[in-house]
């Protein structure tokens, strides 16, 4: 059930109004379902605010997010809320003209673009989908990520999803949710189902 | 990272194709964020499949879901995916003509309508948002819910959200995810933020 009363009022010299527009960094991690799905659900709220949304999918296969992608593209084009830009690593990133050598190079290119967009305040709401993995694999330095997020201008909200979120990131994040797998149909031998898994 | 290979193949006499259209019952529970948000994210996939979607909000205040509601209404009206019907207990349910005495009565009315819709196969994808609470409070009998879900016709997927999901329900569900609160801005004294919390 929603609740609106904080347990304590911080001694940070900010007004409630100022605190309401502070940029949020959220991390959805853990082995359970719903990490990306909840991030795209949050994007619906951002869209409803009329905010420009940037999605960066740090995954090779895009099949699993096609429902969310189509829905957000239709919303972004509806003219009734914010715009939506959807960038897919698996398709070589839209801003990169040449082929890329490796997933590592592609992930790094993705992060460079996120940095440029944060500096330019291109979007108001970012989904960095499965971005924990390039950090987990050591391709992108988590301390640099935290430093860039910490210094980002304006009120840009960032949601990062994926397993194995590193401690410097979860320490820095305002909102961390761990999705725990309690039970999954694949445990019972079912394959992924249309409309559910993608 | 997505994966498509089940650990074992069930000895249920069904083909993979049959198993792919089995109705899924999913429960998002636990104290963390993202239970409803992930359910609405799943609804994007259902919408993308062209499925009729029915949302039943078993909550009094609708403020917190207005972004998702507007987004799903726009999607439902876009003609590019499935339709969306959004029913709110806080506004007295659309199909009820008279005033209701209490939240308990309203919750029971909601469940009666869900039963009628399941029997009629009105929707292909149901979000029963915060439906765990009427069960938790003893207003709706969890054994009856399980029995109705078990016997529902066709391939109707049902997602139930909320804390305190009862064991007969999680035992029956195919997919159970527990959202664990690791860190939340309200712990640091921040109030709910526009575009993030609603």
UniProtKB/TrEMBL annotation, chains A, B:
For this protein, the record's InterPro entries field holds: CblAdoTrfase_CobA (IPR003724), P-loop_NTPase (IPR027417)
Q: Which NCBIfam families match?
A: cobA (TIGR00708), PRK05986.1 (NF004637)
Instruction: Fetch the PANTHER family from UniProt.
Output: CORRINOID ADENOSYLTRANSFERASE (PTHR46638:SF1)
Q: What is this protein called?
A: Cob(I)yrinic acid a,c-diamide adenosyltransferase
Gene of this entry: cobO
